[in-house]
Input
Amino acid sequence: MANRKAKSVIQEFPLIRGLAGRFARPAPGLVQGIGDDAAVVKPTAQTWWHVTTDLLAEGIHFNFKSAAPESVGYRAAMANLSDLAAMGATPHYLLVSLAIPKALKPSHIFTLYSGMMNACRRYRVALIGGDTSASKNGLFLNITLIGTTPTQQALFRHGAHVGDLIYVTGTLGDSLAGLRLVMPLHKAYRSRKKRIALSSSHERFLIGRHFRPTARVAEGQWVNRQRLASAAIDVSDGLSGDLRHLCEESGVGAEIEAEKLPISVACQAYGQATGCSPVQLALTGGEDYELLFTVAPGSRRTIEQQARTRGYHMTCIGTIRPKRFGIQLSSDGQRRPLPVTSYEHFR
Output
């Protein structure tokens, strides 16, 4: 028993060597990766570098009681990939820092990294460094992702103009519905004693959308490369809040048509089974990691035809309005201000 217990104790430098040996790989432009005081990357003169970082805290962003380490790592990487997707960037390099509690085993850390690298592998992202520390209050995971776009060619939140059409990729609300399915003590269901009546296929789809989201990297690169989008943001905190960020940065208002929100069949079924509004799920739910972007009305035919050709699911859900219009939701001919119902830290 004593020997078995000793093997489960995390030792910093053997852990780092093990992670580097298993997950670090050569990559274009990488001069020096893990193993020195800093990584060295050789940039080109024709590129802009995009750097994004996220801090995830156990008990706030994830819970190991409902999520396996692999899915925590996968979702964490996808969150950062989605940030770069919203810029139209190509991801290249990954840095990971961990503060690790004593309760976590080395095998959990390797599984966590496996999840991150599984998410990054399709984009050929290289792990080039990071840091480790002990933690007295759960796991803390910090990811930094670096990507590039051609010089003077990137998507920002500040480019929307009055009259532009508002598009989203994929479907909205799935991740929040999936989260509620794996967290039965969620406040919306504390009073419900029986299992939610939902087909197993719909349940698997929604839970999969929560634990295995897909960053829309290809779609972001495409609308950026073709100069089809005027502004963009990823839907990570919820449509109602992320749309507001884009409008504030662009100095505009917006009108969203509730009937046009793309809601999956599974999410609709979940709403019927629970009495929860699918529209509210779509407006509130974050972590779908879809793209929200604006397009000049003259480009509507082009973008919709080309999206169909490429197999991209994109839906026009509204129009950019003057700032004085505010941000409103229209439904059945009625308009009302769209409140921020998405997730905010410290609220």
Summary: The CA atoms of residues 150 and 185 lie 47 Å apart. The first strand starts at residue 30 and ends at 32.
